[in-house]
Structures are given as structure tokens and as C-alpha cells.
Amino acid sequence: MAEEVISTVRTAQAFGTQKALGGLYNERINKALRVNLKSASAHGIGVGCFFFFIYSAYALGSSFTFREDVHDS
């Protein structure tokens, strides 16, 4: 595997295509970065909503339990 990579780098250097290939690589990396940022944002919002509802349910349950305890006394 390492030999292939080194061979490809030597070939690119021999033909003077480093900048062109580097530009293509950077385009793909930037596209992947944009997709990952969108995915991470959506995932974060989803997890945040999930925990909001879970903790809201706990708070509501505790509230009703407290009210029943106060009214029973």
C-alpha cells in the first residue's frame, strides 16, 4: 500500500500535476467537511430535542408526584 502511494506521488511530481491533483483533493475534502458539518448539526439538534423531552417528562412526573403528596397531607 505504501509503495503505491509513493509511486503515485512520484508520478504526479514527474508530470508536474501536484497542484491540479492537490486542488481536486481539496475540493473533495471540503465537500466532505460541509456534509459532515450539516450531519453533525442535525444530529446535535436531534439529541438535544430527545433529552429535552426526556427531562421534561421527568419534571412533569415529579411535579404531579409532589402535588399529590402535598394535597394528601
Description of the molecule:
With 73 residues, the protein is an all-alpha fold. The chain has one domain (19-72). Helices cover 95% and strands 0% of the residues. The protein has helices at residues 2-15, 18-72. The N and C termini lie far apart (76 Å). The mean pLDDT is 86.
Number of strands: 0
Low-confidence stretches: none
Largest sheet: none
- End-to-end separation in angstroms reads 76 Å
Gross morphology? rod-shaped
Give the total of domains: 1
C-alpha Rg, in Å?
A: 28 Å
Mean pLDDT: 86
**Count of helices?**
2
Strand content: under 5%
| Helical residue percent band | over 70%
- Briefly note the structural class of the backbone: mainly alpha
Order of helix and strand elements from N to C terminus = HH
What brief labels describe this structure?
2 helices; 73 residues; mainly alpha
Short description:
The chain contains two helices and no strands. With 73 residues, the chain is mainly α. The protein has one domain (19-72).
Question: What topology does this entry show?
Answer:
Layout: H1 2-15, H2 18-72
